[in-house]
Every structure is written in C-alpha cells, then in structure tokens.
Amino acid sequence: MKLKNIDIHIFKILIANKKITLNEIVKIYSESEVNIKTSLNRLNNFLVSFNYGHISKKDTVYSLHLISNKKPNKSLNNFPVLSSKERINYFLIILAFEKKIKLCSVAKYFDVTRNTLSSDIKTLKNKLLNYNLTLDSIPWKGLYLKGEARDIYIFSIKTILKFLVKKESNQLVYNIYENLINPTIKDYYDKHIPPNLDYEFKKLSVEILRYFHIEIDLYGANTLKAIFIFLTLNKNNNTIFKNSLVFLKKFKQIEKLYIKTLNKLLTSKLLDNNEVMLNNIDFIVISLILLQKKLLFLEVKKNTPSIIIDLEDLFNLKFSTFDKVEFLTLLDISKFNYEYDIYNYHKIPKERFKFPELLVDVLKEYSIKHHYKILSQDFYILAHFLYNLIFNTYLKILINKKILILDYSNNNWIGSNIKTKLSKNFKFKNIDILSIYMLDFFSTNVLESYDFIIYSFYSDTTTLPTNLVPLKDKLIILDYLDYFEASYLVNKILFNRYLDRKKS
C-alpha cells in the first residue's frame, strides 16, 4: 500500500495535534476538503492494515490513535509506503553528502525497479537545475553531481539545512514518523554524522553565535551546523574554495568587516582544536557576516524593497532600517520554508482579535504582486510582525484621542474599569464615561466632540439608540463579553478606524 505526499503531511499534522478539525487541517496544509477527506481514509486504511493504529472521527474532529512502541514490519517490503517525493528527498541528501548516487544500490535499497528510479531521476534533475547543477552518468559507477563550486556549496548547505530545520522544528512528529514510516534519511544521516559529532557541531554553533552576540535561532544555529557538516564531509576536497571571494561578490564593499570578523573569530579560540574548520575559516566568516545581517542593512539603506513601500503606503507607516531588515529576514525564512516544504504542523491558535485576518489578506495580495511564494502558516508570522509595527505607530496617536465610554451598568463600574485599564496599561489620557441611560440628556454637538464612542449591545438589544445613528463613523461597537477587554478595545479602535478605512 502506497501513501501519497498529501497523506504524509496529514499524518504529521495528526501527530502534532491531539484533536483537529477538517477546517484546521486546511489552514495548515492548503488542500481541498475533498482531497483531505480522501487522504484521511487512505491513511486510516494504511494504519489499520499495518496494525499501527487508527484515525477516529467525532462530529468534525479527527484524532490519531497509535499503538505504543510499534515498530515497522520488516517482513514486508523495506519501504512499502515511500512516495516518489520521499525517495527524491533521500537522493538530495545523498548528493549533498557524497555528490554521487549509485543507482543499483538505491534500487535494491528501496526494492523498486530501474524504471521507477528513472522517473525519480528525471524529477531530481529538474530540481537541480534550480541550482545550475546537473547529473552526469558514468556507466557502472552511477550519477555524479556537476556544476560550479559555489553552486554545489549552496545546494549542499540548503539541503542539509532543510533536513536539520525540519527535524528540530517538529521533533515529536519526526520521531514518530521516522519510526513508523520512513527512517531512510535519519539512518543515512546518523551513519555519516554520529550523535556525538552532531552534538559537537550544534554546541560549536551556539558558542560562536553567542560570542558574536547573534540571535541563536533555529535557522542561524543550523546554518553554521550545516557548514560544519559540509566541511567535514569534504575536508579533502575544499581547495577549490580557498579564499573564496566567489561566495561574496561584494567582498570589497565590506573588506574591513570581513577582516574584523575573521580576527574576532580567531581571537575567540573556539576553532583552535578543529583543523578542518580553521583550514576553511572563510566559509564561517562569510556566514557570520550574513547572519549578522550587515549586508542586508547596507542594501536596505540604499533601496527600500517594493513590498515594504506598498505596506508603508497602505498603512501610512514608516519602516525603520531595523524594521526593514527584520521583515525581509522573515520573508527570506518564509521563502525557504515554501521551497523546502517546511511546515509547522501544529494548528494555528484561535484568534479572538480580527486584526490578523485583515493583515493576512493584505500580505497574501502583496505576496502575489511581488512574486513571493509563502506557506499559509508564515502569513500569520508576518502579520504579527506587521501588527506590532502598526500598533506601536498608531498607539502614540490614539492615546491623545478623546474617547467616550457608554456604560450600561447601574453605577458605571464597567466604564470605570475600562478607563483604568486604558489609562494604566496603554496611557490613554482623555476618557469620559457616560451612563447609556443618560444619553438622551446630551446633545449631538457634545457627542460629536469625541473622536471615538465605545458602545456595546447588551442583553437582546440589537438596535442603536436614535441619537447615535448619525455618529456611526465614531462608534466602536463591541460584543458584550469583549466590552471587558481593554486590549481588544485598543485593537478594535486601531483597525476599525485606521486600517479598514485605508484598505477601502
């Protein structure tokens, strides 16, 4: 029984989430509900057939039930469920490590025909073209990776980085997945990079990043780790890369920075006991310059990317140089995630605020316009970054606005509570409270003097008081329970009164 690529993704989603609805699956993995339902049925049949467990459904909620400590059935074909995409991922890691593939060994390993592999190799060659690389066939020896040294290096680092990030960002998912479905890449990696060496590389990555005061995130630490792996695997074949200005065409522009980074790294003595790393220190220095984002700072100071110009115009914002660099870094990570199928398989938390949806819609529109390919999950990360920028910009304006809270409690305790929160937590300065029952005694002119009027429908009342109808543009209408949330109120003011207007 063969599982398709969609089945593998659905399986990983089910592992990551104890319970999940069909709609939540769609938000993680953009597929039609029909295809996902078909995949769930196929996946359930597979799990039952191999006695691995089953998938249950109650109302609209799906749950995965796995048998504890279950191991793959070795009496079956070695890898009865591997799709073409899974095999190609295996080929890519082999090429990143060894620069060659022995087809006879691979065919035997996967228990597939040469015809099946021929189709895989055709797809593999198309993928390699994206790196300006080709495969040369040598009779009785196999397929060899060919191309410029720089292109081989970039392909190798990105492919190794893909494996490291995928595994570490979803550890529980991959531990179960590799145990039950596909241990091929893990087994291959462990064979070439034993656990003790893997730990040593990770530790060295963290120490170097800490020494240079670079944020220790998943991508930065594993970028250095991928370089260490590449250098170790190719320690006898790196002479072509020595003093590799080819990796940094703008080297002259940052020559002083290069020398400064090199000297600082040597002074740290972190590489003193590692001859391979010292002999190829150029790689590490250049990577540190890129991880410090120094080049990116220089670039955005000269030219603001068009997607940022559009966002500044739409929301009447001004990105600082730092904001531009951070936003572009998030975009680069998003592009990498899309290119290498790196999903966060956990469902997106339910949002009480509506702001992410508005910003996600804008970002989706602009990503198409500016030719960025982004997974659904990453739009929410970008949206939260943008929200924070908008919030900090507009809050400075909002705190001086004149606000009237219409209170339906008998002694205005709700309005007083909200006023305290807005004043204490958000530094609002001009807030008045008026009992909704006293509204008739105030003229329209008085009400019009306020920038915002906060009002909530109470009980089963669904119509606005007559004297508020002409003031609709000033009204912030909240649901009953949201009336108690100062943070929700601030978001409502921000996005109702500024962003929606600008969007229209």
Structure commentary:
The longest helix is centred in the C-terminal third of the chain and has 23 residues. The chain has 22 helices and ten strands. The C terminus is likely disordered. The strands form three sheets. It has a four-stranded parallel beta sheet with strand order 8-7-9-10, with helices on one face. Strands 1-3-2 form a three-stranded antiparallel beta sheet. The protein has a three-stranded antiparallel beta sheet with strand order 4-6-5. Helix 20 links the parallel strand 7 and strand 8. It is an alpha/beta fold.
Q: How does the major sheet shape up?
A: 4 strands, parallel
Mean pLDDT over the residues: 85
Q: Indicate the structural class.
A: alpha/beta
Q: Indicate the proportion of strand residues.
A: 5-15%
Uncertain residue ranges: 74-78, 499-504
Layout: helices, strands, pairs:
Blueprint: H1 5-16, E1 19-21, H2 22-28, H3 33-49, E2 53-58, E3 61-66, H4 84-98, E4 100-101, H5 103-110, H6 114-129, E5 134-138, E6 142-146, H7 149-169, H8 171-180, H9 184-192, H10 195-211, H11 218-233, H12 255-268, H13 275-279, H14 281-291, H15 294-302, H16 306-315, H17 321-339, H18 355-369, H19 376-398, E7 402-407, H20 413-426, E8 430-435, H21 444-448, E9 452-456, E10 475-478, H22 486-503
